[in-house]
Each structure stands twice: as C-alpha cells, then as structure tokens.
Amino acid sequence: MERGLSLNQILFLGLLAWAGVRGWAPIWAIAIVGAWYFALVYLEQNGTLDRWNATRVLGIILMLRTGKGKVALEQLAKPRKLWRAYGEFSIWLCFIVMFGVILLIISAALATAAAPAEQNVLPASDLLLIPGVTSFVPLKWPLIALIIALIIHEYSHGIQARAHGMQVRSFGLLLAGPLPVGAFAEPEYEEMMRAPRRERIRLYAAGPSINLLATIVVLVLLSATANGFVAENPGVHATGIIKETGAEESGLLPYETITHIDDERVSDYQDFTEVMKNYSSGEVASFTVISLPTEGLETRVIEITFTDRWQYHMDQCQQTEGCDLEETERVMEELEIEQGDPFVGVSNLRSNTAAVDGWRFLADDDLSGMQKGLVLLVAPLVLLAIPIQFDGHTMPQQERSMLIAGDGVIASTLGTAGMLDTFDFLFWLAWINFLLGFANLIPMIPFDGGHIFRDAAHSTMRFIMRGGDPIRIENAANRLSSMSSLIVLFIVIIPIILPRLVS
C-alpha cells in the first residue's frame, strides 16, 4: 500500500468517526467496515483485484465479474419476440409502480417535515436492509432469497439485452464483506448506447418487473403453504386481557387456548361467537383453557363472570377525550351490540390458526375472483411491515407454536418443521423480491428507475422540441434527468436525516 493516506481515505475515516460519535452504528460495525475498506484498497493497489476481474466501487463495494451463465442466457433469450413483448409490458408496469414509489417517498418526506421529533430514528444498520445486519432481517432465509432475487433480476436484464441483439460481457455480484448487496449484468456499453432508447428502457425495466412478478407468484405459493397448517389444539386465544373484567379476575392469560365454554366445543372464532349468543352479562361460565406448548400444554378449568359489552364500550368512550357517545351508540347499533351482551374481557380474540389465516385468501370462498386479485396486489405492502412488527419473524412466535402440519400429502411429507421452514423461505423470497423491485424504481441514478426516467425524459424532450437541434435536446434531457435525481435524493434523505438532526 502507498505510504500515507489519500484525501479520500482521510474523508472516509472521518465519516466513520462521525458515525461512531453520533452513535449511528455500533463500534464493532464501524471497525469491520473500516477493515473491509482498507483491505479493498490494498488489494486494488497491488493488482489483486485486476487479477480477480474485480473492481472497487463506491468505496466499500466489491464488484466481482464472471462469464459463467452466458451459455444458459443464449438459450433462454431465443424466443426474442416473446421477450421483446415482455419488455414492452415491463415498461408500463414499471411506470405505474414508479408513480406509487414517488407518492410514497413524497408522503414520507412530508410526514417527517411536519413532525420530525415524533419520527422513530432507526439505527444506520436498519437503513441498509442487509440480512443479518438489519435488526428485523435475519440472516438465513433472507440471504438465500436475496441471492435468488438478484440472479433473476440481472438475468432478466441480460435476456432483454440479447433479445435486442446486445452482447453481455459478464455477470457479477456486488459484495459488502461476505454479504451480497447487489448484482449486475454488464452489456457491451457501446452497443447499449447505440441501441434505440425504447429498447434500452425495456432492458432497464426488465429487472424490477421480474422481481415484482416473482413477488406475486411467490405469494400464491405462500397462500398454498398457509393452507397446509392446522391448529395443534383447535380453539381461540386472546393477545390481551383487559383489567377489571371477568377474564382478569379468573386468571386467564394471553395466548391461552380456549377449547370449551361449559360443555360447548370451541374450534375457532366463529364457534366462539355462536356459543356466546347463549349467554348474557352477569352470567358465569366454565372455560376450559390450555396453556402454550412452551409451558407444557397444561389444561385447566376457570370460571368467568361476563360483564356488559355494551357498557364497556360506552365507558371507554367516556374516558376518551373527544369521543362522541352518540356516534359510539350508532356504531354499536350497526354492529348489533346491545345492552346485556356478554363480554369476556379480552382483546384481539383470534383462532389458533390466526398466524397463517391472513395468507389463506386465495382459498377463501367468501371472496370473489376480483377481490382475491385485489388482495394479491395489496399483500406485498402488508408483507413489508410484518418483520418490523414481529422483530424479524414472519408471525408472532406464540401463535407459531400453535401450528402443526395438516393431513395433505405435501404437509405430511414435510412435517411441521419443514412446513414452517417453507413458509419462512417463501415469505422472505416475496419480501426481498418486492423490496428489490420497488426500490429499484426510485427515479434516480443509479437505480433502474433513474435510467428509465432519463431515457423517457429524452423521448419527451425530443417530442416537445421536435425539429430542434439534437445536441440541445440531449443536453436538455440530461439536465432534466440530473435535476430530478437531485430532487429525489433530497426527498429520500429527509426522513433519514431530519429526525437525527432534531433528536
């Protein structure tokens, strides 16, 4: 390595030190990043990276190239008309989703600017969304899912390149330490620049679109997997016990399974609702409950005195500032809640298969085909929040322990552990694919969305300035693209930086 430190290296060390002082990342993480950075610099300066056909980019990212996969690419790209049609479909899909991306980042920036002090300040490691580093993204299944998602993303780029006659020089991975943070297909640059802009847009759109479509396919498989689970002990459970009610006084605990009310069997939430119609407030019933599997599946019988459900909601309204009693009465009337209706004193009562019930929508006979399609389109947005809500898990762990594999051929073959592993893998495969496709459509270079916007801007400027000087059109389009990238970057960093500045 050369003696002394270059200006870039001094600036990088200063940035790491600032991150440590501000507490944006733990010291051990900063030390690892620093060691990785200087190892790459050393390998770059002694020529090792050149021998590996590798390049250091953005300071700490290692770009590893390989020629493997090109033969398979040629075979896959043979139906060129099919892939060109897919490329055209990809353009429209990406523009629709890009509009949603823009709305999302603008709304996030506005919400942060309106109340920066009220926003959660995530650790720097959580902003990277790297498996095993981000607190709510574990290592095993997300890492495997990331590799698969990156491969299909870049292979889709490569197929579009070959379908339009462009050569692909190499494929490769982008590594930050041992973790893959990206991948690439490297077409011949001059051929790509000479290609018609429409063909280039198809090439850029193919990557995000394949991830978005893969998300839908995997969600279908996830729904089928969810249908393979049954409850080990059919019944219902509550996630919360309300104070000063019959449930609390009887000693009922959260997540205990209710299997019987007096002599009536309760297999799910619907059964519970039907049985409760036989009681009124003030009556007493015997509840047979089973503790969690982690606590030994102890069975006991408790006596619960029902309180008045109607009165409970009215009392809650009176204790809540700004609550309208008349409106509350109207809502309860619509829900057919009457005075004297029994109230156990629990919150969020759920069937014991609740952990997977939400993913069984494709087998729900109460939903029409159109409704199932709409749920399938909205499901990826719901998917993103689940690991954050459950600390990196795909479902609440208490409810996970209530599930076993059903009697189906696949379920019985895989067993409970295999079915849970399959569910986790498919969940993270859908999660990673959607995130990769969605984030890549941010209209900012170097994301695919930025390249799509740049070429689309050129086509738009050429239409507006038709008959004008081609050089002036090119310059105007480049200025528009650069300006939009800066604006988008500013909007994206507002939710990241502003809460930290006021904290």
| Oligomeric state of this protein | single chain
* Separation of the first and last Cα atoms: 40 Å
Q: Walk across the major sheet and give the strand order.
A: 1-2-3-4
Helix content, binned percent? 55-70%
Count every beta strand, where a strand is a DSSP E run of 2 or more residues.
14
Low-confidence stretches: none
Query: In DSSP terms, counting alpha (H) and pi (I) runs of 4 or more, how many helices?
Result: 19
Task: Report the C-alpha radius of gyration, rounded.
Answer: 28 Å
Structure keywords:
elongated; 503 residues; 19 helices; alpha+beta; 14 strands; Pdz3 Domain; 4-stranded antiparallel sheet
What does this structure look like?
With 503 residues, the chain is α+β, with helices and mostly antiparallel strands. The protein has three domains: 7-52; 65-226 and 431-502, no CATH class; 236-351, Pdz3 Domain, CATH 2.30.42. The protein is 57% helix and 14% strand. It has 19 helices and 14 strands. It has helices at residues 7-22, 27-45, 48-51, 70-76, 80-114, 124-128, 140-163, 189-194, 197-226, 246-250, 269-276, 309-318, 325-334, 354-357, 369-389, 397-400, 409-439, 448-464, 470-502; strands spanning 54-57, 61-66, 168-176, 179-187, 229-231, 236-241, 257-261, 264-265, 284-290, 299-305, 307-308, 342-343, 346-351, 403-405. A four-stranded antiparallel beta sheet has the order 1-2-3-4. A four-stranded antiparallel beta sheet has the order 8-7-9-10. A two-stranded antiparallel sheet has the order 5-14. The longest helix is centred in the first third of the chain and has 35 residues, at 80-114.
